[in-house]
Amino acid sequence: MDNVALLGRVVAETTRLVDNTTGDLLERSTPCEGWTARDLVNHITGGATLFAISAEQGSVPDEQLARLMGGDNLGSDPQGAWKTASTRAMAAFGIPGVLDKLVNLPFGEMPAGVALNIAIFDVATHAADLARATDQPIEDLAMLEDALAMGQQMVGPELRVPGVFDAAQPVADDAPIADRLLAFAGRRL
Predict the structure, then answer these.
(1) Cα-based angle 47, 184, 90 (whole degrees, multiple of 5)
(2) 55 with 115: CB under 8 angstroms?
(3) What distance in Å separates the CA atoms of residue 99 and residue 110, rounded to the nearest whole number?
(4) What share of the chain is helix, strand, coil (3-state, %, to 5)?
(5) Residue 140 has what DSSP assignment?
(6) What are the pLDDT digits (tens) for 100-135?
(7) Closest CA to 173 of 184, 165, 189, 159
(8) Which tens digits make up the pLDDT trace of 5-27?
(9) CATH for 3-184?
(10) Any idea where the domains of the chain sit in the sequence?
(11) What is the pLDDT at residue 86?
(12) Helix or strand or coil: residue 110?
């Protein structure tokens, strides 16, 4: 599987959802406990920028880290901020040889290819969160299947802690893929 291409599919689907999340929809609650749709878009925008800077420079300067991890990354244009951040992340992960280098993220040093996989799983999960919160369909269901398979390979017991991933929740094997992905990520549906 070409994971840069998979990230492109995740970004395309997420962009469609973000573009349709305006006005009062930004204030809707999401399956991420305590987060509105705006909080979620802020998180993925900061995360896309963080992953991009890490891929470009190897690490994120301390003065940028706090804003990216919890400050306002959207300003008055959530859709534009997401597009800028996701475009930068796509370009950064497309740099020749970047997937072979080491990057420093707030949760450790790892190959950029592993960071890419984390970004894919995180953003795909949040796309499913956003779709549910705003009553939008996910159009690329195969992308969610790929993201879930990736998450099942990466998320072990050490990551099953509050604030990262809660315990996987029960869900029927034949449940829709968005429900299976969200339940795996610990969402109570």
Answers:
(1) 30
(2) yes
(3) 10
(4) 65, 5, 30
(5) -
(6) 999 999 888 999 999 999 999 999 999 999 999 999
(7) 184
(8) 999 999 999 999 999 999 999 99
(9) 1.20.120.450
(10) 3-184
(11) 98
(12) strand
